[in-house]
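User: Let's play a game. I give you a shape written as tokens, and you guess the letters that built it. Ready? Here's round one.
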């Protein structure tokens, strides 16, 4: 994941290859360096998401979230948040974590059908229950992984309804719907059977593998049609699945251990044309480099960098992701009862990809896209992304996340507190191509799409200005499309139409380069629209 040095002038001729296909009526993000032929006076600036005053807490009166004295208080967005037009509301499938409760006698919770605690660490015999109703043998049944459900009318104020699907210590007053360790939930609009319109995929600890569920309403789930794993996987960790409608493929990003001496966490990849499979064998795609280790040491005095999770999705011409960089500040302490293999903060960093497989950081300095909070903040220790994509509404992008008070290796169970938050970006504004003074960005040669009548930019030129000119395949400026004849942008605009005094973009029939000149301004994307 090395990122080229952003020096005073850069050319990208070595990335030449086929002429980029530019879609119509769709913004093209210029953080993608494969589109750029040359730039000067430009720095890449990761734009931090704006946090809103929304935090979802683990509730003290819900012991499946707030586990009681001596235990953790944590809910995760190892799950999905989306707006469901079929239900007319925002919906969230999140993750609660109890246990392991053999450590604490008072934590002998009972959830028949999902969770049967054992009374000691070995063997994996759960109070005499060793298999489910289908005869599948339990592998690891008492860690308390729980898929939980919440809903909202506005995406900010959430309700955790009492669903009555499973009993918790004899009471049906809870919002437990299953026990996937992270649920990627999909609405399958092409499914002919309305009873299977909702689908969820994730890791199930009972059998330590990846399973598929179906549902008519997203609340009542069934696994009878998929009793066997759709993909073999023994470790828990994140298994984030997204659908790429252009590639007609499901893409899965998971955490696994590498074979180096530190057994570092790396991001692995699998794909399938269907949630039911066949899934390709998972392989590493995002691994820390020596530069990541250097950043780890410089920022935190850390021993090394690892990658803990990747939330990724298709965004117009590219794929965007939030990668969780774990900066290991301390190794495991031998003999500690509640030990986690290493300690350190997790930063959420923006990455992008042309194919969903090869990823590049938004900037060389690994700037946080969702900065961890300061002293006393609920997210001061770690930021962990959701299992799926953000919610895009109009000109805003809302990415929900897990915020942790503690760092990765916290030994005190009661200090392991996790809550849910949300960060928002204006559309396209993830990484700015910024000119403090004079700067220039030149695209590669590209064909405007058929029917293109306008060229728009997403840019902030308040306090400066931005102009554009068009150059033909020979490098010469096309008549009428010089920067001198361009009406300058001098404000902050998400959809600014570039105009020239006498020329019309609709007359362009050949391939062109766009040469943007910036003065004290930031450029994010451009769009050819009809």
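Assistant: Ready! My guess for every position:
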């Amino acid at each position: 994941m090395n990122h080229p040095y952003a020096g005073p002038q850069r050319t990208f001729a070595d990335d030449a290859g086929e002429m980029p296909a530019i879609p119509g009526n769709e913004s093209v993000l210029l953080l993608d360096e494969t589109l750029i032929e040359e730039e000067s006076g430009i720095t890449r600036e990761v734009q931090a998401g704006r946090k809103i005053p929304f935090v979802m807490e683990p509730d003290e009166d819900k012991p499946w979230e707030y586990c009681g004295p001596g235990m953790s208080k944590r809910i995760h967005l190892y799950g999905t948040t989306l707006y469901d037009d079929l239900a007319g509301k925002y919906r969230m499938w999140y993750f609660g974590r109890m246990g392991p409760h053999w450590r604490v006698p008072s934590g002998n919770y009972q959830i028949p059908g999902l969770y049967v605690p054992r009374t000691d660490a070995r063997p994996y015999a759960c109070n005499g229950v060793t298999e489910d109703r289908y005869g599948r043998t339990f592998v690891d049944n008492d860690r308390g992984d729980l898929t939980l459900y919440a809903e909202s009318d506005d995406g900010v104020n959430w309700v955790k309804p009492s669903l009555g699907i499973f009993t918790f210590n004899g009471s049906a007053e809870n919002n437990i719907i299953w026990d996937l360790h992270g649920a990627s939930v999909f609405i399958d609009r092409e499914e002919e059977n309305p009873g299977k319109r909702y689908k969820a995929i994730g890791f199930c600890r009972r059998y330590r593998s990846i399973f598929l569920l179906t549902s008519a309403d997203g609340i009542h789930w069934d696994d009878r049609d998929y009793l066997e794993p759709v993909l073999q996987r023994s470790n828990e960790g994140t298994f984030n699945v997204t659908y790429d409608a252009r590639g007609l493929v499901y893409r899965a990003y998971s955490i696994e251990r590498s074979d180096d001496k530190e057994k570092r966490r790396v991001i692995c990849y699998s794909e399938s044309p269907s949630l039911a499979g066949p899934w390709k064998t998972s392989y590493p795609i995002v691994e820390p480099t020596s530069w990541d280790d250097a950043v780890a040491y410089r920022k935190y005095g850390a021993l090394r960098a690892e990658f803990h999770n990747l939330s990724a999705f298709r965004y117009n011409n590219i794929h965007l992701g939030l990668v969780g960089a774990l900066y290991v500040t301390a190794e495991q302490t031998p003999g500690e009862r509640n030990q986690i293999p290493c300690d350190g903060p997790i930063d959420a960093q923006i990455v992008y990809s042309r194919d969903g497989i090869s990823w590049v950081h938004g900037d060389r300095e690994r700037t946080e896209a969702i900065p961890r909070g300061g002293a006393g903040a609920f997210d001061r220790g770690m930021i962990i992304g959701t299992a799926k994509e953000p919610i895009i509404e109009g000109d805003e992008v809302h990415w929900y996340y897990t915020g942790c008070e503690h760092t990765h290796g916290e030994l005190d169970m009661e200090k392991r507190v996790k809550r849910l938050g949300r960060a928002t970006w204006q559309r396209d504004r993830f990484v700015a191509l910024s000119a403090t003074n004079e700067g220039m960005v030149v695209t590669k040669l590209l064909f405007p799409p058929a029917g293109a009548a306008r060229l728009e930019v997403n840019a902030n030129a308040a306090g400066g200005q931005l102009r554009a000119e068009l150059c033909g395949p020979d490098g010469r400026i096309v008549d009428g499309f010089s920067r001198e004849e361009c009406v300058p942008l001098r404000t902050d605009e998400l959809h600014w139409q570039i105009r020239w005094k006498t020329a019309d973009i609709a007359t362009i029939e050949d391939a062109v380069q766009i040469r943007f000149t910036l003065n004290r301004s930031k450029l994010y994307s451009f769009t050819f629209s009809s």
